[in-house]
Amino acid sequence: MSSLEVIEMMAGYDAEGQPVAEKLRVRVNEDNECELVNSPAFIKGLASGDVIKLDQQTGQFEIKRRSGNLCIRVFSKDNIEPLADSLGSEIEKLGGMLDIETPRMLVFSIHVSCGFTAIEDILNKAMTSSTAWYYGNVYDPVDGQTPLNWWQEILGES
Predict the structure, then answer these.
(1) In the sheet that 69-76 helps form, which strands lie side by side, from edge to edge?
(2) Average pLDDT of 117-138?
(3) Domains in the chain and their CATH numbers?
């Protein structure tokens, strides 16, 4: 049996070099492993459904099992509500869901089996000059460019 809890994890540092934490809803299992209920807004490398082991002392985590979900973050200089409605319905048609909505940000989770091309086509068509989207768990959190390739095992690619 698992319980629903909120944990804090290290998300990075602010402009003054102070650590910034993000609160995440998780299901904690009997091994004290945490399954993310939603994709995070700022913590890199994770998506909803991923199971992690959190070191409470350091705030660092180890991924125990990937869910197969992609974390997609959409940012806007303007009010994002109109985009949330149109983009949200397109993502939902592929089985994805909106995890977080703020006035300037959306965070979606969608399974990688939907295909990068289909997902990227929807996102690219929806973007304007004041919006941008990024994957939260596709590229190495350190360099931001090297693909993590965790999906190859899930999709049966080699």
Answers:
(1) 97-102, 105-111, 69-76, 131-135
(2) 97
(3) 3-65 (no CATH), 69-155 (3.30.70.240)
